[in-house]
Each structure stands twice: as structure tokens, then as C-alpha cells.
Amino acid sequence: MSAADDIGRGDIGCLNLRWSLALLEGMVSAGLRHLVLSPGARSTPLLIAAQRLEVAGCLQLTPILDERSAAFFALGIARAQLRPVALLATSGSAPAHWYPAVIEAAEVGLPLLLLSADRPPRLRGWGANQTIDQTRLFGAFVREFLDPGLPQATAPALKAQRALGRRVALVSSGQRAGPVHLNLPFDEPLVPGPACTAAVDLEGAEPPLRSVDAGSIAVESVVNVAECNDSEGNETGFARLKTGPVAEWSREAEPREVEPHGAEPMVTRLEVELRSWPAGRGLILCGPGSELRTPVSSAPRLSLAPSLWRCAEALALPVLVDPLSGLRASAQPAIAETQISAYDSFLRHPKVARVLRPDWVLRIGRAPVSKLLGQWLEGVPAILVSETGVWSDSSHDALLRLELPAAAVCDALRVQGRVKPRPDWLARWRAAEQETWRLVDASLAQASPSSGLASSATDTSADLRLRPSPAVQEARIDERKAGLLRTLSWSEAQVIAALRAAIPDGEALFCANSMPIRQLDTWWRAGGAQVTLLGNRGASGIDGYLSTLAGIHQAGLACWGLVGDLSLCHDLSGLLLATRLDRPLLVLNNGGGHIFDYLPQRGLADFERLWQTPQRVELSALAALAGLRHWRVEDAEGLDAALSEVGLTPGMIECVIDPEVSRQAHLAFWEWIRVSSFPGPDISEA
């Protein structure tokens, strides 16, 4: 029976189902594998269609009560797998709850398909129940908005609907990846009648379009949807589609030579663009999102790392790796020579900051977590690499923006001879990097010798033995150091060091915003185990943390959590998803928003009540609500014991931090950096 027959029988519900099946079949043909839904009546046709695709083994459905939580959950899946994830909600205010996650997806460039069910157009503006104007609900935060109107019965209309599904999936995962909004009105009845014969028609789907964007988020070969079941009809595709292909992710693997990027026009364009490259000493800054791949993301996506490290090694360029760049964790010795991660600390030394100031910077990815680094680079001519065309240049220093794959730019820069290698320049950066981590190791080892955290120094090269400088011997510096050791006896520094030692190769850490991500930036050194460091840094909000973490786990990526007490409380509905976690969650409980302790707001009237906003909540009760085991630790020894007991299983470890002790520890450490003598070639001389 056809859609026209449905009309003839008056079965609008069946027509709605055929329309919905065509749309979702098109999306599946272009890479959709997961749909996250919140319950509602008006979205019933789409949900029934999704159910049938789930039975066919082509789609996984996850129902989540709270739309905001559902949206961040979908965001987590998209972040881990780098493939389209659909969101479904009923009409009215329901889709508006997606807004914070939509903003994050838009800023970062993650593929979300926003499916908002709606009432028929004739009811809009007439006071009908649960009916609002959903047109362009998300404004400029979506790559496209489309409303195909009410379902139609003709074959060309169904063909167009299937093509629409393919289109939005490909747009969301294309060169300028991001959310796409489809508003989908349905008339009643919403449930098909018993005579409805609408069925999944995967083999009848049009051949999928193919994206030619060289560096776009890869949709795992646009799929042959007929392969959702094996030859005997078993749902073997379901497990395969849940996690997607696993990229090569071995710390032992050597970087492979890559084929020249793009066709001849790209090569020619690079030759022209690089002619204006500035002279002098340079560096590469890899901000958040420079390398998006994770151990469970789509394998075909071009990796930046091999081209980046070959370029840096050949040209003796320091590479500053933001914690969310995807490039801070690596164990290859050749990489360690150019990889710089302690910049937020050693740039506080006035002479070091002056000696290391570059003549130009090649910027990849978004703005770095470190505010100090961003301020230090103000006024330095920048070359932006942004394949998506985004301007990441808040200091307005860009000379040039290259809308090309970063790997291609690195390859061209390496072979075209426009940058003269300066080994002495790189040596200065290495000296500052090594001395800073030596000071960190010495501080942690002496502050808590029984905690075992001094073992973090073992991945530092043998020439980093303690070398007290004459300045450090001065009484005033000894006094500062003694105060530092007292305050460092228990602070976030120990928590980060313990996490870095505990997380196994190939797993991930999802870090919350505000203070936790800044602590990670300060205390997580480059190298070590191959750990994927993740965060929602597009809009840098503290919302949706637990829901995003649950989505990352759903994607098949074993992921630890690091969150502050306020971020945890901000997403309490995410606790309902805690049963999906399979790794520990560490909570830095310092009793409120103590990022303001480092800002000018500190000391204002009613500071604690209006800015820090401490929440009087027993985290043990929240853990019990979520079905998680709970540990409360107040020192390094307690943390070591809790990590040993929890192992690689879910649980909440509450790390109680005295905020004033932590603040004094950080201020003392930065002061120690400022007055230390940095060894190396002219590193402290200017």
C-alpha cells in the first residue's frame, strides 16, 4: 500500500509514519546511529519509525526524561564518536531545553540533529495548547534550519523527505560541522491504524551523497543501510553501530607518512599563502579541538599529530599543547623534545616570559584554557589555521587565516623551507619546561613523601636532578618554599598527579569547567599514558557535566570524571544517568565557586553568598541517590587508598579541599616560579 492509499483510507497516522521512516532512513544512510529522545505525544510518529529502525539493527534509542540532560548526553556521544546523533522532543517548550547543549555543539562543531515535533501550521498563533513558534528556535547556533511542512502522500514528496534526512546528516558532519534543526509538524491521529503497512525500506533508499570535504568529521563510510542485519537477519549491526570503528590508538605506533593533502589547487594555494610567512622565531599553539579523534571516533578522519610532530621536529619549533588540544598525552621521545605543557607556570617568570616571546605564532584550534598564555601572546603576529572558517583571534593579531587542514599546513611548512630551524630557540623552551616540572616534582615529593606522588617524576629525563640555584638558597626564598610545602600538603595538585598516574593507557578523562580545567592545565604534564583529555570548552559553561560524561560512556569510551561541587550540583538530573558510568568520578569539593577567589570580585560585599554560592549538600547522599559507592578523602593518603579500592569501576571520590589553603598554595607556587633561577641557554638572561 502507498501513502496515497493511506490518505484514501483516512489513515493520517500511517502517512505520518511513512514520512518519518523516510526521513530517518535518509539519516541512517548518512551515518546516524543513535537517537536520544524525551517522551511526548506529538513526536510519536518519529518515535515509532525509530523503533522500527532499532528492530532492524540500524539505530539505537535512549530515552531520557529531562530534555536538557538528553541534549548533553547526545553531545557526549557526538564528542566521543564524531558522528551525527539525533535528539527528539515533543512540541512546546520541550526543545528549548536543548539550548545550552546546542550552543556548545555549535561552538565546538559537533554534529547534532535536532528533531522537534510540532503542531500543524494552522494551529500556530491561535492559542492552541502546547503550541509555540518553533521556527528558527535556535537562531544562529544551527548550521541549517528546515521545516518540510506536513507529511505528503506522493512518491516525490517521500523521496524528498529521504533526501532531506541524508542532507541534514551530511551537513551536520561536514566541513563546518555542528547542529542542524528540523521542525516537523504532524496532524492527528499520531498513531497509525491497524491496517497500516508502512515498513522500513532500507534497500529502497537512494544512494547516499558523499562529502568531499577533506578534513570534515568523518561519517564512517556512508553506510550501506541494507547491512544493518546479517544474512540470517540477526541484529549484528547494533553492536557495531553503537561504538563505531575504533581508530588506531596505540602508544607504540610510529607516526605514519601521510599522502599529500588535497588536490593540486590546495598545494598551489599553500605555496601562495606561505610566501607571506613572517620571519623570525616562532611557535605553534594547539588550542582545544586541535586533534578531535578519540579511541572510539571514526577512523577516516585525518589526524593532525603525525604531520604536526614532524614539522615541529624538523623546524625546531616549540608546540604549546593545551590540555584539551588532544595532543598533550604522548609517550614518544621525539615528540617530548618539542611538546610544551608548563607554560602557564613558567611564563609567570618575568625574564623567562621576555626571553621566550616569539616573532610569530601558528594557531591551531580554539582559544587556550590559560588566560595568562592568551594575554602573553597579545601583539604577536598570528597565522590562524581554521578549516571551518572560524576566527579564533580575540586579540585581533591575525595576519592570515588558512581555511585548510592543519595537517596540510604543517606538511607544507616543513617542506617549503620558509622557516629556518633554530635549535637554540627550542632549547630555551625545553629548559623552562624541564625546570618547571622539576620544581613541581620537588614540591609534591617533599610536601607528601608518603603519598607516592613523587613517582610522577620518573617520566622526566635523567638530567633533571635537583639543582638548587644560588637564588633558591637565599633565606627569603627558603621561607617561601617552606610555606609552599606546607600548603601543598593537600591541594588539587595532588589530585591531578594521582589521576594522571591512575588512568590507564587508551582511556579518557572528562574535566569540568571553572577551576577543574585550570587545575588540569597547571598540573597535568605532557607525556605519560595515552589519555584522551576532554571538556565542554565551546562556551565554557558548568552545565550538563554528568549528562555529557554519561554520553561519552554510552559511546563506548572508558572515561574518568573530574568535576567541582557546583558543576555536579548544576546537573543533578544527570545523576539519573549515573548507572551508565563505568569509571570513577572525582569531585573537587571546595565549598562553592572559588574561581572568584582569583578574580577582582574577591573581597566585594556579600562575596560568599552572591558569587561563591556554596551549596549545603551532602555528596554522599547524592552518590547514594545515583547508586554510586562514595569515598570522602581529605589527604593524599586517603586519595591513594580510595583510588586503589575503586580500581576501574564506577564510584564517587569526594576530595575535600580547603579553598584558602589551595589559594595560598597556588600563589606560593607561582611566586616560587617568579623568583627561581632557570638553567639553560640564556633562559633567565635578558
Q: What would you note in describing this structure?
A:
Helix 4 packs parallel to helix 5 (99-108) and helix 4 (67-81) crosses helix 19. The chain contains 24 helices and 18 strands. The model is unreliable at 204-226, 229-263 and 449-477 (pLDDT under 50). The chain has 686 residues and is α/β, with parallel strands linked by helices. The chain starts with a helix and ends in an 11-residue tail after the last helix. It is globular.
Shape: globular
Number-wise, the strands total 18
Main beta sheet, described? 6 strands, parallel
Task: Kindly provide the radius of gyration, computed on alpha-carbon positions and rounded to a whole number of angstroms.
Answer: 27 Å
Helical segment count? 24
Q: How is the quaternary structure best described?
A: single chain
- Percent of residues in helices comes to 25-40%
Average of the residue pLDDT scores: 84
Distance between the termini: 84 Å
The chain-level structural class is: alpha/beta
Low-confidence stretches: 204-226, 229-263, 449-477
Q: How big a fraction of the residues is strand?
A: 5-15%
Main β-sheet, spatial strand arrangement? 2-1-3-4-6-5
List its traits.
single chain; 686 residues; alpha/beta; six-stranded parallel beta sheet; 24 helices; 18 strands; 12% strand; globular
Write a short abstract of this structure:
By secondary structure, the protein is an alpha/beta fold.
Topology of this structure?
Elements: H1 3-9, H2 12-29, E1 34-37, H3 44-55, E2 60-63, H4 67-81, E3 85-89, H5 99-108, E4 112-118, E5 144-146, H6 155-172, E6 180-185, H7 236-243, H8 264-273, E7 282-286, H9 305-315, E8 319-321, H10 333-336, E9 339-340, H11 343-346, H12 350-355, E10 360-364, H13 371-376, E11 382-385, E12 398-402, H14 406-416, H15 423-447, H16 475-487, H17 492-502, E13 508-511, H18 515-523, E14 532-534, H19 545-554, E15 559-564, H20 565-570, E16 584-589, H21 607-612, H22 619-626, E17 630-633, H23 636-646, E18 651-656, H24 659-675
Parallel strand pairs: 1-2, 1-3, 3-4, 4-6, 5-6, 7-8, 7-10, 8-9, 10-11, 11-12, 13-14, 13-15, 15-16, 16-18, 17-18
